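Form 7-S
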Amino acid sequence: MTPYEAKDEAEEIIESIKNYDADDLRQEKLYYRITELQKSDVFKGKQAETELFARAKELKIAKQVNELLKAYRMRQAQKSTAIGGNCTEFTDQPVALDCGSWIADDRGIRKVVISNNGETETKIASTTPIVITAIFKNIEMQENNEKIKLAYRDNGIWKTMIVPNSIICEARRITELAGNGIDVTSNTAKYLIDYLRDIKTGNRDKIPVLDSIGHLGWTEDGRFAPYDDIAFDGDAKVRPLYQSVSRKGDYEAWKKYVGKLRKNICLRLQMAASFASPLLYKLNTLPFILHFHGGTENGKTVGMIVAASIWGDPRPGKMWRTLNNTINFAMTSAAAFHHLPCMFDELQTIKTKMNYDEFIMRMCTGIDRGRMNGSAMEETKTWLNAILTTGEDPIVRDNSGGGSINRVIEIDCTDKVIATNGKEIVRFLSDNYGYAGKEFIEKISEHTNLNALFDDIYTKLMNQTNTADKQGSSMAAMMLADLLAGIYIFPDEEPLTVADVAPFLADKSRVDVSERAYDYVLDLIAVNSNKFGSDAIGECWGDIKEDGTVLFNKSILVSKMNDSGFVFDAVKKKWKEKKYIIPNSQGRLVHNTRCNGIKANYIKIAQKPETPENLPSAPPF
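Output:
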């Protein structure tokens, strides 16, 4: 009914009442018309009711009419409760739901309440059309595991949002919906809660209840999101990451096109890390970083785009992001991808925010810091995936901790990762992506001997290289992923061998911080030999003895090591075990003795002990 039609009907009712006799005022049809008029136009409805009682007073039946109108309204209220009442009538609504005694149409959500004396009052819940379209039950949470998917119309467009069930149950919290464009205030909060509760409880047969999780990847019962029947209930801020895992184009064309690019060992390793990411959960190994660095125009980013196209949309901002963001953004992204690879370009952009060691350790720990929300602790984010990064700089430095070096496989791109036209590759992959990942997950889900295959590769790798355990574990996962990709997706390829990957593994000596710190001190002494002995120029750092040992002033040694990122107290125990430093006669590391006639505290540095790999030579200083 248009506003003009409603106005005409209202005036017709009001004019007719003036001429009704007593029998006319007792007819149920009249009460129906007045009640319906009040639903569409509160003011006109009240005018009609006022005219009704004025005419009833003239005919001396006002009390009787009042009782009849009151009885009619109570009967209608009982009928609404008994049969489910009204139905939502929003334009283009995603679903029509029973809404009990609520009137829910484009004019808003409201209810006519009848007091004990028969007076009516309209309670407004919201002027925003809003319905519940799904109920999510998070299968990984023991408490507070229910979320509600709301659909609401904002400026003529239907939008959706997912909120904890607790938000639509508490007047204090439901007002938070106002931030998304939903009309709710502290005065209307109670009525919106009642409306949403009524449609939730009254439409159990219409509103689907879905299993859900808040991340991509494996579930505890063996399913994999988004490929299996499981919904995403995560934060709206990371929903675009979830949606980026999608499929488009021609899978066979993708395999043929990408298969030719895989002849480059660096690109092969980027894809191996990408395929390895969901294997880490199956193998119970740790997150790791594969970092490509070097100058521009060598195809690092294009290589990462190829690796991203395995799983989904490889365009910027979809399966990969730049690191021109905070560390919290990086960890939130890793938690959202969870078991799928997390990819970041332009690593050097975080240098002003934190050092690389901090980035490595926080990302490879696989767990975010705990946070409080008021008096309650927020759910702690976790992840177990491969992290692919690119940048101009190496991520591991000479003074990096052993834990950092052990968690990173770093590749210096001296040669081009992509030798052909990068723009052409990006255009092709923007139209063809996402099929290989789904097939890969389907195949490895059926595997029963993944751990045995991994153990065999890991053993061969450790026996034939001098790398550390975590480096070996990460590379073994990549080699296994490459093997499986060759079986399922690129069947004409030979798998990667130990000889192929050995050049990209860090030697144990590089992982050992005490060894790198000792080498730094030897270089420091050699470069500054004029600061030792009786002929020292300027400040005197100590003395070089004839047997090749060096007395090094402890304060200067500690200071110089700190300046380069090494901590003397952290390495002195290993130095003593390796006989890189010589204790005094009492077994203490500090020698309180004289150099050039001045008594001070010194550390006695020894030459590196002779081994078959370290043949005798003249004293190094």
